[in-house]
Design goal:
The protein is of the alpha+beta class and 482 residues long. Helix content is 45%, strand content 15%. The chain has 17 helices and 16 strands. A 7-stranded mixed beta sheet has the order 3-2-1-4-7-6-8. Strands 14-15-10-9-13-16 form a 6-stranded antiparallel beta sheet, with no helix packed on it. α6 packs across α17. The chain is globular.
Length: 482
């Protein structure tokens, strides 16, 4: 045991030494590289400092490859990602100072290091036309593109169709849509053919044909598919939606006009404020991983992190601009958290599914991100006493406090009744939650203003329900044929 601890101590000391050395070199280089957009990218003492920098990259790349991180080392993975980010930025910032051979060497080291940290980037071994490196993955993003990604499978296919009806037929969104699944057993061909006919610009993507599944097991990964669907999408700006999400505004309203998203390139939504003080182990672990980390503006404002509530993120809708390097690398961290070894040992034990991996990956990687202004609200129907609003959903709002979307689907209680739809009539923001004791039991919000949904909001929901009923009839015929 003592020998093991001594080895771990020496490893940690060496790792810290390498990181500190890189930080010092990083700071020394900062003064020499002109700010983005400057007409000059000259490096002071270019021959000497550039040679030392390239040598440090080679040495550190070899170290990262020879000493991979354990599944528990979320914070150290964030530190390594920040080093990788510096190297990628140097590829651009020092391009005029490097010879073609030096530039190629630096890019190769970046890709080699990224592959050692994220082996799934290689793509499936049996395919020759998939991503083989981080640089290859980035080149596959269609420049300037925006689109929607909906992961689904047999269990949630019905809700995914409802969502497409909501997007295409009611909200009239024309953003392209990728339906992501994990192999033929997850979503049969007949379902894939059916969904592609629900509107223009809808395609299906088998995530097992995008990434090497050896260390992922996405066929049985459930929530884990979401992060990889976001990373692997060809859209540069991506909105990833749970199949049971319902939108009350077109997705273009977020992608084109949301100020917080425009500022940071990553928009997340809060979960409910529940179970204060009930998950001390989770909070202690978060704090451990964030040791020596300067909190982002979003984390500094977090009531969950700072006041001891249970769950920070409702990951039913995530918006990401992968053209921004810090955001892309933060998504890579989230994907690493959802690899099989890491999710089984830590991610899904310290949180509920994928939901905390999004903000945690961005935070630890040094990326800025935006959370909605409020924690999860309530959209439902008045209780008998007219002092509470109750339902099985969580509601989310835009920057003007207008209803934006909610999770949970169109059914009143999908766990008890698969045919009873609901058009909610009232909502509440920033109230106190009364959580149902179990998932099939209704939750309520109290002690805040109750607002009636607008005529336009009720119209959107009514039309969405009508479309869903029509789609259900077609899906029923499809399953009969199967």
């Amino acid at each position: 045991m003592l020998s093991h601890l001594r080895s771990r101590f020496l490893f940690s000391a060496l790792a810290l030494g390498v990181i500190l050395t890189l930080i010092l070199q990083r700071n020394n280089l900062r003064y020499a590289i002109s700010p983005p957009g400057s007409s000059s990218n000259l490096l002071d003492h270019s021959d000497d400092s550039l040679a030392k920098f390239l040598q440090s990259v080679s040495t550190t790349s070899a170290y990262f490859t020879d000493y991979p991180l354990a599944a528990s080392e979320f914070g150290q993975m964030g530190k390594r990602i920040q080093v990788l980010r510096d190297w990628i930025e140097a590829c651009h910032g020092l391009s005029r100072q490097m010879t073609p051979e030096e530039a190629n060497t630096l890019r190769d080291r970046v890709d080699e290091t990224a592959l050692s940290m994220f082996p799934f980037l290689r793509g499936p071994a049996q395919l020759s036309n998939t991503s083989t490196s981080l640089s290859h993955l980035r080149k596959n993003f269609k420049r300037g593109s925006k689109g929607i990604v909906i992961p689904t499978g047999r269990k949630t296919f019905r809700y995914a169709c409802h969502l497409i009806g909501n997007l295409r037929d009611v909200l009239k969104s024309r953003l392209p849509i990728e339906i992501v699944y994990a192999g033929d057993s997850d979503l049969p061909l007949s379902s894939r053919d059916f969904v592609k006919k629900l509107g223009p610009s809808i395609e299906t993507v088998d995530i097992l044909q995008v990434f090497d599944d050896t260390a992922l097991d996405l066929q049985h990964g459930g929530w884990a598919v979401k992060t990889f669907a976001a990373l692997g999408s060809r859209y540069e700006q991506v909105m990833i939606l749970d199949a049971d999400a319902v939108l009350l505004q077109a997705p273009e309203a977020i992608l084109d006009h949301h100020r917080g998203y425009k500022l940071t390139g990553a928009l997340l939504f809060h979960d409910r404020l529940l179970w204060q003080g009930g998950f001390k182990d989770r909070h202690q672990w978060w704090e451990q991983q964030l040791e020596h980390h300067t909190p982002s503006p979003a984390l500094s404002k977090s009531r969950v992190y700072n006041e001891g509530y249970a769950e920070e993120c409702d990951s039913g809708l995530i918006v990401l601009d992968k053209s921004r390097l810090p955001v892309l690398l933060g998504v890579l961290h989230a994907c690493w958290q959802n690899t099989k070894e890491v999710r089984d040992a830590w991610t899904y034990k310290m949180g509920y599914g994928d939901k905390e991996s999004w903000w945690f990956g961005l935070e630890l990687s040094g990326a800025n991100y935006t959370f909605e202004d409020h924690y999860g609200g309530m959209l439902g129907n008045l209780a008998v006493d007219k002092k509470k609003t109750c339902s099985f959903t969580i509601a989310h709002f835009d920057e003007q406090d207008k209803l934006l979307w909610y999770n949970g689907g169109l059914l009143k209680n999908k766990l008890k009744n698969s045919t009873e739809f609901d058009v909610p009539t009232h909502y509440m923001i920033d109230g106190v939650w009364e959580k149902g004791a179990t998932k099939p039991e209704i939750s309520c919000m109290k002690e805040t203003t109750i607002t009636e949904t607008s005529k336009e909001e009720r119209k959107i929901l009514t039309l969405t329900v009508e479309k869903a009923k029509s789609l259900d009839a077609q899906i029923k015929q499809l399953t009969t044929l199967d």
